[in-house]
Design brief:
It is a single chain. The chain has two domains: about 110 residues, 2-Layer Sandwich (Enolase-like, domain 1); about 230 residues, Enolase-like C-terminal domain (TIM Barrel). Helix content is about 40%, strand content about 25%. The chain contains twelve helices and 15 strands. Strands 5-6-7-8-9-10-11 form a seven-stranded parallel sheet. It is globular and about 60 Å long. The two termini are about 25 Å apart. The mean pLDDT is about 95. The protein binds magnesium ion. Magnesium ion binds next to loops.
Length: about 350
Amino acid sequence: MKLTTHLVSSPLHTPFITALRTATHAESLLVEITDGDLSGWGEAPQVWKVTGDSLAGSQACVEGPIATALDGLGPDDLTEALRRVQNAAAGNFGAKAAVDIALHDLAARRHGQTLHGFLGSTVDVVRTDVTLSVGDAEALAAAGRARVADGFDVLKVKVGTDAKADVERVRRVREAIGPGATLRLDANQGWSRRDAVNAIRALEDCDIELVEQPVEAADLEGMAWVTDRVSTPILADESVYGVRDLVNVIRHGAADMVNVKLAKCGGLAPARTLLELARSHGIRTIVGSMMESHVGVGAAAALVSAYPTSAVNDLDAAWWLREAPVAGGIRYEGSLIHLPSTPGLGVTGLVS
Ligand code: MG
């Protein structure tokens, strides 16, 4: 097996604006593992503000300790290879996810199967929500109407700045899109405990499906305090990277749901463990992604087709790309993601 890395930058068709940054491109490290004439692909997105993973750091981790750990292993040793990837370094979940995905993709191709088929799925369409870029109430309402016209029926609104203004903005979006579409909120750790309870209670007549990460990631007591005081389900995102974090959330009763992301937990193998652990403890699940391309999102889509989650998943990232860095792979049609029918992730190579 030979391991190669590629740095890619893919332009978005619309700037993606959050409270933390404005993105015009998706920046990723793609990992290609070749065996004979087959290539497996994986992706590590740049996520400075959440995991702290950079492209340079991910590249160094993949080409250094992970490559060393895999040295001498054959492509048949998938389970051992996946274990070595996770043990090769501390942190570096993006790098681990990229190699874990590429190893799964390569294994599926060696069996002549799609990645989702290899994972045990017979479902080749999954649904996604779409996130509205941050803006004032009017801009958000317009974006909400536009995305519904694009065929999306689950909209995610970023909140977590000023709680009172957040309530007004969300009300305007609900008015603009009407009662038919589902609305979910993501505060990205931006509220205090009290702001969170006040804002969520104030919006309980707006039919909010869930509120993601209302308070700081490390404040599990605070998140439990919020969860106890509102009817709207609370979804842990930044609070949960790996299994130990999910166990802590369960112990604290900090959330009703967890958002599993490959770039937080280190790939498909740890993600499966998280989904099983959550289910066995009555924690509902969704799978999300960072700003990444058809490789990383394709792997997450394959995962949820084989391991169904409790609510519509958060896999719109690659929809934002004006140009994909790779040919082939998943295809969007409104809120539907069509999985490929060709082997692995269906990716045939880099777009030059
Ligand atoms: Mg989130």
